[in-house]
Amino acid sequence: MNRSRGEGTVMKKIRGRMDESILVCVYYGPNGERLIKRGHKLAQIMDCPLYVLTVDALPYDEFDADKSGYVERWKELCDELDVEEFMIRDDERRPFVKVIAEVAHNQNITQIIIGQSPQNRWEEITKGSIINALLREMTFIDIHIVSIDRTLKSIEDTTYEKGVRAFLQKDENETYRLSFARSKYNLYEGIFYKEIGTDFNNGVFKFVNNKGKTCQVHVTEDIITGAMKEPPNVKK
C-alpha cells in the first residue's frame, strides 16, 4: 500500500531548479526528523523539490505505537517545511534498495540522503555491499550518508507492552475513559499500548478513524489527555 501526503492536490509548488531533486530516506527513531531538516536545508540552498520516503515490510495498520508516532510527526514536519511529497511504502516485500531506486526513478531524484545509525535498519545501507547496490541501481545519483550521533535519543522515546484490544467511553464528566470490555457505551475501538514499568494504564491508544487514517491519543491513568478531535469509530 502506498500513501503520500497531499493526495488529491491539483497543483504542486513549482520549484526554481527542476533539474535537481532530493530524496530523504528515513526509518524509525529520533534521527528521522533530523534527516528531514538536513534535506530541507539542502533543498533550500539548491532551490529544488524535496521528497521524504519511509519503507516498511509491515502493513501500515500493523505499525506499533512508536512507529505510528514517528510517522505522524514526520507528516507534520513535512507540512511545516512544505515538502513536495511524503511517501510511505508499507507492506513492502522487496529489498529496500529496490524500493528506493524505484521512487528515485519516478521522482527524477538526483540526490539521496540516508542516515547512518546502528540503531535501525538503515545501518545496513552504510555497509559497502549495500552502497554498491545503490550505486548500481541509481546511476548518476549522489548518495549522502549522514553520520548520526549514537547517543542521540528522543526524550519522548518510551517502551510499550504488546498492544491489546481496548475501547473508549465518555463518562459523566465528558472525559474519555479506557475500557477493555465490549459495551453499548463504547465510542471508539482500537489498540492500547501500555508503558512498561507502570502499575497504571498509562500509554497510547491507537485507532483507525472513519476515513481510514490511523490516529492515536495519550492515556494517563485510564483517562485520555488532550482533546479528542476524531468522531467515534464504533458503529451503533
UniProtKB/TrEMBL annotation:
SUPFAM superfamilies: Adenine nucleotide alpha hydrolases-like. Transmembrane segments: none annotated. InterPro entries: Histidine_kinase_KdpD, Rossmann-like_a/b/a_fold. GO terms for molecular function: phosphorelay sensor kinase activity. It comes from the Bacteria. Keywords: Kinase, Transferase. The keyword Kinase applies. GO terms for cellular component: plasma membrane. PANTHER family: SENSOR PROTEIN KDPD. This is K+-sensing histidine kinase KdpD.
